[in-house]
Amino acid sequence: MAAQAANVSLTTLNWPPFVGDSLDRGGFINVIVQESLAAAGYTSDVEFTAWQTALDTVKAGEKDAVVGGYYSEARAKDYLYSIPLYTVMVGVIKTPKLDISSYDSFTTLNNYKIGKVEGFVTSEAFDNYAFSQLQVFKEVDQAVAALEAGKIDLYADSLSAAREEAKKQGMDPMDLQILIPPLEEHDLYLLVSKAIPNSEELRNAFNKGLIELQASGRYEEILKEFNQ
């Protein structure tokens, strides 16, 4: 069984600068996770895929854990959460084509075509609002391309992630701006499948490994290595 073996199978999405198969060692969040597991006595491997696919695969117990997910009550039914890995600011992002810089309600935002990635948690209030023109994309690159092409007006995500993808697509990343106020500040976690044997043992061992990484100073070294 996966959780009883020395190797932990991980999965996540392509979401630079945090995680991604194009990044050095899979990105700094992946390095933090894999080194924390190593400190706890595990080896690990990671597969990059669409976010909803990653969530579904781990929920079914086909892989052990998702790297870098936000917390939600709905997810807590299927996954055990680690202690926090890192904190990310999430908001609604625009290009210079849209002449607004702030909003006072979701009713105001409902006048625009908004994009998000399938399976993403933004904020409880935002995710529960029935936006009439919401478009869902499988991958971050699709959503950012749609924003640049004017197929959507706004995109809900981390500004750092959106700017990183914009740079890859040849856009000026500084053209992307977050509307005021931001939606929410989120911690990133390791989400361990409740469907695997010894899931609590794995989660607890990971937590100890992460604490060890932080106490030794290695956590800060990783952030510096990736200019975070």
UniProtKB/TrEMBL annotation:
Pfam families reported in the protein's UniProt record: SBP_bac_3 (PF00497)
Swiss-Prot/TrEMBL keywords: Signal
InterPro entries registered for this protein in UniProt: Solute-binding_3/MltF_N
Key word ATP-binding present: no
Biological source species: Maribrevibacterium harenarium
Domain Solute-binding protein family 3/N-terminal, chain residue ranges per copy: 28-226
The keyword Isomerase is assigned to this record: no
Similarity section: Belongs to the bacterial solute-binding protein 3 family.
Name of the protein in its database record: Transporter substrate-binding domain-containing protein
SUPFAM superfamilies to which the protein is assigned, alphabetical: Periplasmic binding protein-like II
